[in-house]
């Protein structure tokens, strides 16, 4: 398929009537089927989830992106979608929970419906029709009427008992709702996506779920009109002209007077090549841990750091790699350190590198899994305890019960390289571990966070370390990325004996 209009963005949202309706199976099957046909597919996920985008990335071969208008803003979502969807044949956006489920039961805030409205994307509604016939039409009709401005352009019915069952619900929905039922999936229990256990992402990376992705595509193609789905995607309105703004404008990300750009300017008589070389050699380096233990990063965060002037250098603690010697800052993302605690503990040079970074006041940011590795010890579910970096005077204990889940507004308790005291950044918290500090009375918490259950203090901020369970989205605070990179630049100059 050739995109003749640069502002055309063929796109769909795959939404469910509720969690468990089958939207992930449909999304992955559709992505795989489209990729098989030779199309360039860009995946997106509504909301803050990391695991579904990992599935998308494995299926499409390109990094899936999160679209979250609560953590960022509707304007940010529009820009991010316009940028990431450019040049691809089709974009598939997977919804979150039910179509209208989000942060607020009285509005579309934080829901799939909000993303559909913001991006003007047609919706394919996935309906679980087990044990129903004409009632399926009532469900779809209700979803249509709740938000009349939403374009529910088609339906896929899941868990049909037979072709005859599909024919009944198809006729009922099309008669009452006036939209096409474009496909169906049989009731196959082994088609279910595995539960989100903690070893799932490493299994995806090893390719162990590839047969499941192939089977999902086969099942979808067996009962679905792929041409009709592509036609719905092509009918999406063009992206508005004003969305094609410079998403990487450093000035937008660096409102502070002392932005990194002030240190990286080239003279007027420099050639373009000389300027680029000087800028690259002068840019601060942020070392990013990325492997099966550290893999939960919003792509936007990494791109915003680069847009603010940083060079990112990736390394794998699990492969025995040290922190890169040229690092001027460190980013430890979330993931599954408890699954690989023995390997992390054995990489003594990595842990000592973290301690040295702390001692030298190098900016060190860690979230969730990375936060856990900064503690003194980590005890896994089997009761085995491993020594970690020991920067945070606390012990981490894994537990069977989930410890926290939900959106967070994180207010800085004190000034740091990320936020000034009182500034707020938004993010998400999801973990099964607990962090127990040795001294409960005098903990330098990083944030005061607000969630559904009220306010709490969490994380750790001392020296140039900022860490916590909250996965922050830098797009929610335009100055945060620039301030972080500027502190890395200051460290770089200080290390080389220069002065700002």
Automatic annotation (TrEMBL):
Site (Increases nucleophilicity of active site Cys): 471
CDD domains: CobB_N, GATase1_CobB
Cofactor or coenzyme needed: Mg(2+)
Region listing for Disordered, in residue ranges: 250-278
InterPro entries per record: CbiA/CobB_synth, Class_I_gatase-like, CobQ/CobB/MinD/ParA_Nub-bd_dom, GATase_3, P-loop_NTPase
Active-site annotation: 368 (nucleophile)
Residues spanning the signal sequence: none
Domain of life: Bacteria
Keywords, in A-Z order: ATP-binding, Cobalamin biosynthesis, Glutamine amidotransferase, Ligase, Magnesium, Nucleotide-binding
HAMAP family xref list: CobB_CbiA (MF_00027)
Function recorded in the entry: Catalyzes the ATP-dependent amidation of the two carboxylate groups at positions a and c of cobyrinate, using either L-glutamine or ammonia as the nitrogen source.
Domain text: Comprises of two domains. The C-terminal domain contains the binding site for glutamine and catalyzes the hydrolysis of this substrate to glutamate and ammonia. The N-terminal domain is anticipated to bind ATP and cobyrinate and catalyzes the ultimate synthesis of the diamide product. The ammonia produced via the glutaminase domain is probably translocated to the adjacent domain via a molecular tunnel, where it reacts with an activated intermediate.
Homology family: Belongs to the CobB/CbiA family.
Protein name: Cobyrinate a,c-diamide synthase
Organism of provenance: Paenibacillus illinoisensis
């Amino acid at each position: 398929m050739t995109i003749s209009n640069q502002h055309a963005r063929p796109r769909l949202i795959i939404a469910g009537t509720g969690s468990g309706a089958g939207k992930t199976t449909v999304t992955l099957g559709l992505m795989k089927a489209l990729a098989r046909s030779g199309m360039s597919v860009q995946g997106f996920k509504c909301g803050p989830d990391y695991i579904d985008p990992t599935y998308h990335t494995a299926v499409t071969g390109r990094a899936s992106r999160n679209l979250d208008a609560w953590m960022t803003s509707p304007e940010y979502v529009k820009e991010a979608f316009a940028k990431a969807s450019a040049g691809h044949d089709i974009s598939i956006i997977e919804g979150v929970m039910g179509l209208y489920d989000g942060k607020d039961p009285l509005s579309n805030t934080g829901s799939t419906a909000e993303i559909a409205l913001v991006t003007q994307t047609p919706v394919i509604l996935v309906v679980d029709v087990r044990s129903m016939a004409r009632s399926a039409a009532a469900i779809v009709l209700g979803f249509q009427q709740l938000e009349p401005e939403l374009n529910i352009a088609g339906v896929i019915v899941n868990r049909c008992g037979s072709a005859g069952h599909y024919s009944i619900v198809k006729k009922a929905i099309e008669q009452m709702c006036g939209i096409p039922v474009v496909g169906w999936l049989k009731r196959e229990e082994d088609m279910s996506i595995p539960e989100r256990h903690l070893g799932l992402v490493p299994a995806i990376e090893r390719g162990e779920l590839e047969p499941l992705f192939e089977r999902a595509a086969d099942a979808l193609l067996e009962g679905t009109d792929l041409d009709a789905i592509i036609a719905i995607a092509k009918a999406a309105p063009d992206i508005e002209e004003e969305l094609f703004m410079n998403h990487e404008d450093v000035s937008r990300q660096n409102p502070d007077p002392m932005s990194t750009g002030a240190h990286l300017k080239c003279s007027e008589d420099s050639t373009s090549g000389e300027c680029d070389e000087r800028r690259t050699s002068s840019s601060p380096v942020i070392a990013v841990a990325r492997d099966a233990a550290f893999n939960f990063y919003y792509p936007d965060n990494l791109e915003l750091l680069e847009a603010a002037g940083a060079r990112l250098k990736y390394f794998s603690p699990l492969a025995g790699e040290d922190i890169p010697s040229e690092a001027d800052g460190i980013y430890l993302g979330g993931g599954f350190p408890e699954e690989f605690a023995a390997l992390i503990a054995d990489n003594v040079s990595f842990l000592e590198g973290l301690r040295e970074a702390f001692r030298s006041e190098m900016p060190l940011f860690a979230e969730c899994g990375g936060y856990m590795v900064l503690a003194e010890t980590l005890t896994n579910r089997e009761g085995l305890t491993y020594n970690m970096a020991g920067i945070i005077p606390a012990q981490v204990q894994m537990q069977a019960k989930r410890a926290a889940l939900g959106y967070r507004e994180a207010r800085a308790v004190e000034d740091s390289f990320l936020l000034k005291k009182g500034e707020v950044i938004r993010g998400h918290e999801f973990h099964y571990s607990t962090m127990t500090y040795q001294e409960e009375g005098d903990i330098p918490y990083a944030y005061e966070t607000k969630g559904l259950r009220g306010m709490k203090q969490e994380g750790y901020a001392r020296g140039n370390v900022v860490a916590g369970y909250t996965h922050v989205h830098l797009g929610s605070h335009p100055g945060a990325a620039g301030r972080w990179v500027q502190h890395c630049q200051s460290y770089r100059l200080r290390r080389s004996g220069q002065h700002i």
